[in-house]
Amino acid sequence: MSSFGFGTLTVALFALVCCSGSDEKAFEVHMRPEKLIVEPKESLKVNCSTTCNQPEVGGLETSLNKILLAEQAQWKHYLISNISHDTVLWCHFTCSGKQESMSSNVSVYHAWPPELNMSVKLPCSPASILNHRPLPLCTGAGQAASSPTVEHHEPPKQVFLTLQPTWVAVGKSFTIECRVPAVEPLDRLTLFLLRGNETLHSQTFGKAAPALQEATATFSSTAHREDGHHNFSCLAELNLTSRGGDVFQKHSAPKMLEIYEPVPDSQMVIIVIVVSVLLFLFVTSVLLCFIFSQHWRQRRTGTYGVRAAWRRLPQAFRP
Question: Hey, which of 52, 140, 180, 219 would disulfide with 215, CB 3.0 to 4.6 Å?
Answer without folding.
Answer: 180
